[in-house]
Amino acid sequence: MEPTPLLDGLRFAxxxxxxxxxxxxxxxxxxxxxxVDEHGHAETVVQFxxxxxxxxxxxxxxxxxxxxxxxRPVILRRAVDGAVTEYADLxxxxxxxxxxxxxxxxxxxxxxxxxTDGFDFxxxxxxxxxxxxxVEADRSARIVxxxxxxPNGPVLTCDDxxxxxxxxxxxQLLGFDKRPDGSLHNRRIWAxxxxxxxxxxxxxxxxxxxxxxxxxxxxxxxREGGEITDMITVEGRxxxxxxxxxxxxxxxFILNLHGGPDALMNRTCTATIDTMRVVxxxx
Length: 283
What we know:
Elements lengths: L3 E7 L2 E7 L2 E6 L4 E5 L5 E6 L6 E6 L5 E5 L4 E5 L5 E6 L8 E6 L5 E5 L17 E5 L5 E6 L4 E6 L5 E6 L4 E7 L5 E9 L8 E3 L5 E5 L4 E5 L5 E6 L4 E8 L5 E8 L1 H6 L4 E8 L6
Antiparallel strand pairs: 1-24, 2-3, 3-4, 4-5, 6-7, 7-8, 8-9, 10-11, 11-12, 12-13, 14-15, 15-16, 16-17, 18-19, 19-20, 20-21, 22-23, 23-24
């Protein structure tokens, strides 16, 4: 199965979320948040100035959008009317840049603290320096999982009872169960993907995870324990992150990088979005 092109002309597309019949994502190097529908109609909904590089996205129950700022350890909020304000300052808790986030049905945001000064694959974060920070609906914050190095692409299962995150440099998915108060427990290796790994991830109704492995071009569906049920390999681009969505939840959006790691680091890369149809829906 070969993915179908949907959108091009991007610089570095990341952090997708399906919401309100559209895919929302960051075009990070262009400092903007965009949307695209299943027909390829795209729109810029927020254009940031210098000082803000948008990263992780998540929606609160009222429809407002939370946005991680990669340049400072703060989360911004875009209200439904488009106004952007600071939502939470996590300076006292974060080590290194904040990265992706996921929001549960109660409006609690789980955000990864990378534990490193950057995302250079040649530089590993000091072991134990990363974490998962929980921002409550009242904006208070605390660390709910320590020693989570370079957490990336977090997801919450459909029943809102499990939290799964990719360990960017370890080639593993890390899983937790979620208590009613939002705290995490029962930490475990959800799947060991070595010698490959996973960048971004998305979860379906059966709690299987779709992963992207940029260096091999592999897009895989993985069950807890590591069983791979589906896999395709794309050429000529690096799949970075998938996201399930669409009207029926069976469209897998795939955000791709063109130009390779060097182009990413010197900001000369380009990006595209493809789609493919899958059997098991998101919800």
